[in-house]
């Protein structure tokens, strides 16, 4: 709640600072619900990008969600009619919680997954809406607000490390990012980083299992 409401608030402020109507924030948070992509979308709007360009860029930005989904296939197998929403609502933060917090055996897992996902979207939706309303009525200096998303990812990474206590996956992610940053254009950095990290993870799979 503390992460998503504040981050959503920052998105709402940033959106209206570019003179877009406040109601776009709740609409985007309800039907798109993709934190990083919603921040990026503001730049798409300003650049007047075409639908094809937006679709391609969105695919690359959110490609990482595919790998998250693959790792949750077993967990979501028996979720029935809730599965479509669980797929739609899977974000970086929700994935981090699902893989960090141990399942409570006293709870029905499918409803636990549903409410965890739904509450996360509610926090983001509420924060974005309030941020847009406040930003429409009060002047703010929004310089640096886009870094709030990066800050949240850093916190999530720290929590994952504390839970996993295995430095290899984090070292692989860091090395892959540095290589991509040094040798690949910025618009292709994400997909190259993910692909390289996957190759290295498969290569060190046995060592990871032993850990």
TrEMBL record:
Belongs to the AzlC family. InterPro entries: Brnchd-chn_aa_trnsp_permease. The chain crosses the membrane at residues 30-48, 111-134, 140-158, 167-184, 190-208. This is Branched-chain amino acid transporter AzlC. The keyword Nucleus does not apply. One of its GO terms (biological process) is L-valine transmembrane transport. It is found in: Cell membrane. One of its GO terms (cellular component) is plasma membrane. It is a multi-pass membrane protein. Pfam families: AzlC (PF03591). The keyword Transport applies. Keywords: Cell membrane, Membrane, Transmembrane, Transmembrane helix, Transport.
């Amino acid at each position: 709640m503390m992460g998503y409401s504040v981050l959503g608030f920052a998105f709402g402020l940033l959106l209206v600072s570019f003179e877009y109507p406040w109601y776009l924030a709740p609409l985007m948070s309800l039907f798109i619900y993709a934190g990083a992509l919603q921040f990026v979308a503001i730049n798409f709007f300003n650049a007047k990008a075409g639908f094809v360009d937006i679709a391609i860029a969105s695919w690359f930005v959110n490609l990482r969600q595919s790998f998250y989904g693959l790792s949750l296939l077993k967990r979501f197998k028996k979720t029935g009619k809730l599965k479509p929403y669980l797929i739609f609502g899977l974000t970086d933060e929700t994935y981090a919680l699902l893989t960090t917090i141990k399942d409570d055996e006293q709870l029905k897992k499918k409803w636990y997954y549903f409410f965890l996902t739904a509450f996360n979207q509610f926090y983001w939706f509420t924060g974005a809406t309030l941020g847009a309303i406040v930003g429409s009525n009060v002047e703010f200096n929004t310089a640096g607000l886009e870094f709030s998303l990066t800050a949240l990812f850093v916190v999530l990474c720290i929590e994952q490390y504390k839970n996993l206590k295995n430095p290899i996956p984090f070292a692989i992610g860091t090395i892959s990012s540095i290589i991509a940053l040094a040798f690949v254009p910025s618009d292709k950095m994400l997909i190259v980083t993910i692909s390289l990290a996957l190759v290295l993870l498969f290569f060190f799979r046995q060592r990871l299992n032993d850990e």
